[in-house]
Design goal:
Length: 319
């Protein structure tokens, strides 16, 4: 008799930033057997207990073989990975009989058509979801988390806060709120989803079937640049008078970032990507759509604790 739970989980990108957090969170549940789908010849270090299956992304049959017997495939590849790899994984998952796919989302609201139109890295997300349903062999749950807070806050050109130089660029007035998640929250989300029953048990309740082929949302908090900056002041004890604060039109910053990106400037890409979610059209704030936080038992996090982690991380990141 087939289990009503996901047991075998394959992760593509298990050694990456978010994929590593997901892998650790799943291992901690003690409920899952984790298989890392890795590129042949890769040297990534993975936690004890993770099964490693190298594949050749140019040969579909190697991916199919690696995915046989898996109950779920989580795709957590680097954002620069070409969409063709996602499509290969989806096709292979279908051919291997994998019933559940968590596609490579983990981002702001990819269902927002205006946002997806303006951010090229999101334009493949809708077609990838459609490809899963069109194939008809697997079901998906697309998890939107917003940008990762401690990763993004550590990059001056992302949220506009430069710890080293004590400078801040507020987009417009800095009051537009965006939904954002921490890495641990993303890990908890994946572990909770993969631990839910597939079909409702007993008197009903939460189950994966109720989320089938849907985009779902989780976050840690919904905050503005001003909220972030006030957290920085609390954590560091450094007052506003010790910072240089300027303002810039969000739309102009986005347009300038777009031009710089086309000139090969990666900081321009970051400026374009992040500033777009701070437009006053609400695209960066998905709390009004409802989140799964309560359903998944996710905690309300302390922004100051995560701001402290971002400050530490900023000391080792160069942009």
């Amino acid at each position: 008799m087939a289990s009503n739970y996901i047991i075998n989980v394959a992760i593509a990108g298990a050694s990456g930033n978010s994929g590593g957090i997901m892998t650790d969170a799943l291992l901690k549940t003690g409920r899952h057997t984790i298989t890392a789908i890795t590129r042949a010849g890769g040297q990534s270090k993975l936690p004890d207990g993770v099964i490693v299956k190298p594949v050749d992304y140019s040969k579909l049959e190697t991916i199919v073989e690696a995915l046989k017997g898996q109950d779920a495939l989580i795709i957590a590849l680097n954002g620069y990975a070409p969409p063709e790899i996602d499509m290969m994984l989806i096709k292979a998952a279908g051919d291997a009989g994998v019933p559940w796919i968590f596609p490579n989302e983990w981002a702001p609201d990819t269902a927002n058509e205006d946002l997806a139109q303006d951010l090229v890295v999101f334009q493949s997300k809708g077609p990838i979801r459609k490809a899963i349903t069109d194939l008809g062999k697997s079901s998906y749950i697309a998890v939107n988390t917003g940008f990762w807070y401690e990763w993004s806050l550590a990059i001056p050109s992302a949220f506009g806060i430069d710890f080293a130089n004590r400078t801040v660029t507020l987009f417009d007035e800095g009051k537009t709120k965006i939904s954002t998640s921490t890495w641990p929250q993303v890990g908890r989300t994946v572990a909770s989803l993969c631990s839910m029953p597939i079909k409702a048990e007993g008197n009903g309740g939460a189950c994966l079937e109720n989320l089938k082929n849907q985009i779902v949302y989780v976050d840690s908090f919904t905050v503005s640049q001003i909220d972030m900056l006030e957290s920085v002041f609390r954590v560091t004890g450094i007052t506003e008078q010790d910072w240089t604060i300027t303002k810039e039109s969000a739309k102009e910053r986005y347009e300038n970032g777009l031009k710089e990106m086309h000139q090969g400037d990666r900081i321009g890409f970051v400026k374009m990507l992040y500033t777009r979610i701070f437009f006053d059209d609400g695209a960066g704030n998905f709390e009004s759509k409802g989140t799964l936080n309560s359903l998944l038992g996710l905690p309300k996090e302390d922004i100051d604790e995560v701001t402290r982690a971002a400050i530490e991380r900023s000391k080792t990141v160069t942009w």
